[in-house]
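Sequence in, structure out. Go.
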Amino acid sequence: MASSPSMSRLELLLPETQSLILCHISTAKTLHSLISASPRFYQVFKSRREYHLTQLAKQQCRHSESAWDAITASNLPKPLSFAAADDFIENFYDDDRWEANIMPLDVSIPMIRLGSCVEWFITDLASSCLLNLTHLKKLMGLKQNDLVLQSSLSEAEMVRIRRAFFRFELSRHICQRKSDDMHIADMSLQNGRFLLKYDLDEIEEITCVRDYIVRRLWAVFDQMEDDLVQGAQAGLVPEVLQATQLLPDCENWFGVHAKQKHDKHTEHMMFLGLSYLKDVFTADKESRMELILSASAETVECWGDDLLTQALYDTPKRDLGPDTPKFYSFSASNFRDHFEDYSLGWRWIQRQLPPGYDNGKGPRDWGYIFWSPERLTASGIFTA
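Output:
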């Protein structure tokens, strides 16, 4: 049968070639657009749906072992017993599972969603942290090379940030299980053992992600307070204030103890995961308020929401020299998420601060551990 004159050249390709094209698509949005626009591509996709979603998951997560671990942890039973948690901690970090040709849909689809979410966060974290790094020019009088400082992220920088977000998701799944057979002190010790599966600079990457999320959430709460003040100045009772009257302990929402209350909310909201947090950060004002109030109402019923923060900040510090090479109990070359050496930012901060000293707010605010030597040199920080 003759082909329709309006049929695109892509639709005239052999199904095998169309399948290869589908395998190289790296985002769910692109895949959806293509199969929606082309009935032929949709039929090719539908004929091998599990296979093509597996390939998309690999592309979306860049074959990150940490993404596998995060999805595996998300499927653990809740509450998780002490023994089951120990078993997972001992074995989660031992092989590369990306060679599978076909993933179950309950693995590939969450993987695609997580990968897409993390790609958004990579851009947002970079924008936030590099803006803070640029502000150091005004505060410290640095000579910065703005062209290099604001250049596109390198592959190594994206790998570091990407794995930190995947590991944040993994960590919050482990730390939020709230098992009845565990004392909170034992749970804290177990969380520390879990984090020490990573090297110290890799734990610091997760901590940088945690601090970035807290800064973003505080900005949200600040905006809520601004809405309250603006409404009061206009002689109106803002919707935000009306809504907070329904919350437990509502008198402290914007009162003397507001900051302490917000601390509890931020810890709980972090435990809800990256997908929820992205919704909060990208929602319009009304939808954002609904998301926050829903989470805030849960906070009173929850305990241990700060276990991840405690684990990140209480992890024992090992005194490592700035030039100490990394050592692993496995072959690091087999893992795409690992680097053979510490980042320049980590080595630099170890030289500047006494052993065991917490790196603190300043360096994490500008994401020091993620950036390439070229970007850090362009920041002027090394000559300050």
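Check: The CA atoms of residues 52 and 117 lie 19 Å apart. The two ends are 73 Å apart (CA to CA).
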